[in-house]
């Protein structure tokens, strides 16, 4: 943050760099450094008050990652018309999106209105990991207004002239002192301002269009944020082994021993273990279609076969028999975890 402040102070002190690409980039770096510092301080304070283990326990539904991509900010039609008519006086608006969650702050690329496009399209991907089901991700849209840069590169850096631009003062090796006036200052405040806020949760992540809050009246933004979001559980419950499945064959019930794999919310089964990964499964049960909150061992009144589990899928009660009671408990635990993940993340 101090380094960004020094570079920005130098740009602000020199007329050649007023509104330049170097100054705008310095403002972006200072904004990102300040936001990350604030997020780290807030996290440190949270750990002091709540303790290191508060909120860090593993949820039964596990954790997930959220990826944001293809962010778009449409611009107002009246702003575009004024820009086309040249009524803005060379004003340029620079935008950057910050994705914030706990101590994490991710930044998009920086785009400006100088190109005359009707929509600002951010092409980079931003991914947050280790999100609990009650996650809250905040997207801040920040803007900086400058004048369009008109000074040529050669004149800005005084190339080809006797008066050379010295960005870094020369150090006297004998005395250790610098020659010339060095720019030294404390941390500066970013000139970027907040022009839009969006909150992302488990309830709204499937949407692709979001309303921006806190948009100033004079902002060129239309007031919406378009984005593609992908929410993926970081680890699916996985169980494999033999189960004897009750199946309807020609209207008659029959038990068939199958090699089963529980993975990615699906229970697939083959005739032999060596068929897994080589042949297509003989069938599968999609846990998204299950109406049960959990699987359970059934009593002998329901099924005389020992170690039998019941699971309702697509309106049909499926009976699955394990070889031993320990195996039945293992399958119950795996199926219940998968059902809970399916209900929670729905992805």
Description of the structure:
Strand 12 and strand 13 form a beta hairpin. Helix 1 runs antiparallel to helix 2. The protein has 347 residues and is of the alpha+beta class. The strands form three sheets. A seven-stranded antiparallel sheet has the order 14-13-12-11-17-16-15. Strands 1, 5, 6, 9 and 10 form a five-stranded antiparallel sheet that branches. The protein has five helices and 17 strands. The chain folds into two domains: 140 residues, Immunoglobulin-like, CATH 2.60.40.150; 109 residues, Pleckstrin-homology domain (PH domain)/Phosphotyrosine-binding domain (PTB) (PH-domain like, Roll), CATH 2.30.29. About 3% of the residues have low confidence. InterPro entries: AHD (IPR012966), Cytokinesis/Rho-signaling (IPR051364), PH-like_dom_sf (IPR011993), PH_Anillin (IPR037840), PH_domain (IPR001849). One of its GO terms (biological process) is mitotic cytokinesis. One of its GO terms (cellular component) is actomyosin contractile ring. This is Putative actin-binding protein.
Low-confidence stretches: 174-182
Number of strands: 17
Give the helix/strand class.
alpha+beta
Named CATH topology of the largest domain = Immunoglobulin-like
| Alpha-carbon distance between the two ends | 39 Å
| Alpha carbon gyration radius | 30 Å
Side-by-side strand order of the widest sheet: 14-13-12-11-17-16-15
Question: What's the architecture of the largest domain, going by CATH?
Answer: Sandwich
Return the average pLDDT rounded to an integer.
85
Kindly provide the name of the CATH class of the largest domain: Mainly Beta
Relevant CATH superfamily of the largest domain: C2 domain
Write down the secondary-structure element order.
HHEHEEEEEEHEEEEEEEEEEH
- What count of structural domains? 2
Number of helical elements: 5
